[in-house]
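## retry 2 of 3
previous attempt timed out at serialization; input unchanged, resubmitting
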Amino acid sequence: MHKSGFVNIVGNPNVGKSTLMNDLVGERVSIITSKAQTTRHRIMGIVNTPEYQIVFSDTPGVLTPKYKLQESMLNFSEGALTDADILLYVTDVVEDPTKNADYLAKVAKETVPVLLVINKIDLVKEQADLEAIVDRWKEILPNAEVFPTSAKEHFNVTNLMARIVELLPEHAPYFGKDALTDKPARFFVTEIIREKILLNYDKEIPYSAEVIVEKFDEKEGAIHIMAVIYVERDSQKGILIGKGGTMIKRVGTEARKDIETFFGKSVYLELFVKVEPNWRNRENKLRSFGYIE
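## retry succeeded, writing output
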């Protein structure tokens, strides 16, 4: 019989959920930076073999919302608890296990298999320290299977994957066997551009920026892309563009290279910056940006 299932990856910000997702899928599906709240959407990555299909789902880190955008992000994380066949709760060796106790209490009540991934174990010097971390998490999630892991170093990820395959229910494929994700090509363009903003700017700029692709004209050997970066204030627009346009050119160059690698084609990328005041708290803008259905 063929196996298929939804494996949802949840946890607090900055514990390595996106790195783990990409390692499990074997493709770069989620963007990765050292900043918290990098992932804003729920992103699916699909692994296919003749025997099974795994639909992995990367989710935003669990947080206490400060504005409507973060409320939508939390809804993606909460929704991941309701439709999983297998739940991967990701933490790391430095995180306070009592953080977001309400969400953890919901995870503890899950009836589906829960795999507790303790990530970044390459940071632990002593075996006894790791054992103490594992013991503490076993008290919090006693029904979970524990997998000490380093997604960055690909340590124990193969064993985690094997266990996921074992736990998959028998089911026909949910997506076509050639599918990698449920997201359209434009989505990955916006995410790559947003990654470069996260990497090149500090403070509030990355969190105030949203990217929308307005033109995606694909021909046989090339793609012409026109994208708009929205920010909330004129001062943010000035910082994003930089003196003489130097900063926006850097973002464009770095993004274009990654987009070319992603699609395997030459890319002509045009970037524009516009101000959309307080968009993170405006429901109509969040709906148009795809955060609210």
